[in-house]
């Protein structure tokens, strides 16, 4: 696998920008101190984590990965300082070490937990789809409070992430039969995710789309929908309880839409990726199943997105497919991205 320096830096910033509780960071710090005091080389950290007690494996691995991302940022800064001081070879050595640290992170991620490892077993959103009745979407909408209805309809129709609704989604009446939903993407960086996508619906194919079309029409043809994730989650939980349904959240809607797309658009993986806000067809494997998508119909008739979708036969433009590490242009590739580092702890 080839490692691109800009991508590594972007990944490090994305990881460290994710909010974590103070007590979690404190525990990470204690574990990392213990790992450092072991006197092991970084490449030996994988075995160290593998030898921890089953009950501590997941926490220890997470702490090590978090600290290694911080180490990557530190090494980028160190390389920049050395380059500024005219120490080109020392700077290149630091960046070579960055790639080594990134490889260790991958090795830690691939390390399987021992049999009795403690993990938090969350509810499977994909598994919940099979328990839902045929008319669950209509029942959920019917029991949603008026203030939350546009956001819930957008979630059901587009499968957008709660974070995307928090940024604001634009619903537009196209004509007397069509509706569009414009979404600014979350989970994006220089190569991953769709910065924006636009979905167009035939309102005659979906009562939910028709309902949203009527709401937007009453607002002059353009409706700006915005809802905070916690508020949306509470709204959907209350509505599902009133409707006599299992607990439903935005990610259940997302998995259900992915299932429908796989059922109706089985040969159009590029289009499925665009609808879900992905820049690669590989990511959709985690969402839904073709069999679960047999319920209901498909009202999406067109999708546009910012980026061409990567496929196994069409890797993302600009991403090296070489197996060797090229050091000649390290400085140009990496240092420009250091200008606006995200704050991290």
Automatic annotation (TrEMBL):
Organism lineage string: Bacteria, Pseudomonadati, Pseudomonadota, Alphaproteobacteria, Hyphomicrobiales
Classification via SUPFAM superfamilies: DNA breaking-rejoining enzymes (SSF56349)
InterPro entries: DNA_brk_join_enz, Integrase-like_cat_sf
Domain of life, source organism: Bacteria
Organism of derivation: Devosia oryzisoli
Protein name: Integrase
Keyword Protein biosynthesis part of the UniProt annotation: no
GO biological process: DNA integration; DNA recombination
Sample GO molecular function, one term: DNA binding
UniProt keywords, alphabetically: DNA recombination
């Amino acid at each position: 696998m080839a490692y691109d320096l800009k991508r590594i830096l972007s990944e490090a910033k994305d990881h460290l920008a994710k909010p974590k509780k103070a007590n979690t960071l404190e525990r990470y710090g204690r574990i990392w101190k213990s790992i450092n005091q072991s006197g092991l080389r970084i490449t030996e950290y994988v075995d160290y984590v593998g030898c921890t007690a089953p009950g501590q494996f997941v926490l220890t691995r997470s702490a090590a990965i978090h600290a290694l991302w911080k180490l990557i940022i530190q090494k980028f800064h160190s390389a920049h300082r050395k380059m500024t001081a005219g120490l080109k070879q020392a700077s290149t050595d630091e960046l070579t070490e960055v790639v080594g640290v990134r490889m260790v992170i991958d090795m830690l991620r691939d390390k399987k937990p021992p049999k009795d490892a403690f993990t938090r077993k969350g509810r499977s959103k994909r598994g919940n789809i099979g328990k839902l009745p045929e008319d669950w979407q209509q029942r959920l909408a019917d029991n949603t409070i008026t203030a939350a209805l546009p956001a819930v309809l957008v979630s059901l129709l587009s499968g957008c992430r709660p974070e995307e609704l928090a940024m604001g989604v634009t619903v537009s009446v196209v004509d007397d039969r069509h509706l569009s939903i414009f979404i600014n993407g979350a989970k994006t960086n220089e190569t991953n995710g769709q910065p924006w996508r636009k979905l167009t619906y035939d309102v005659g194919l979906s009562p939910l789309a028709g309902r949203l079309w009527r709401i937007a029409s009453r607002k002059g043809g353009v409706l700006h929908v915005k809802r905070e994730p916690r508020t949306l989650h509470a709204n959907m939980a209350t509505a599902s309880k009133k409707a006599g349904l299992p607990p439903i959240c935005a990610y259940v809607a997302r998995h259900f839409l992915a299932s429908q797309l796989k059922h109706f658009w089985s040969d159009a993986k590029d289009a499925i990726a665009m609808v879900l806000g992905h820049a690669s067809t590989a990511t959709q494997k985690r969402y839904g199943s073709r069999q679960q998508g047999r319920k209901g119909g498909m009202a999406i008739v067109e999708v546009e997105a910012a980026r061409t979708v990567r496929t196994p036969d069409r890797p993302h433009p600009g991403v090296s497919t070489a197996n060797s590490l090229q050091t000649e242009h390290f400085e140009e590739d990496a240092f420009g991205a250091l200008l606006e580092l995200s704050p991290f702890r």
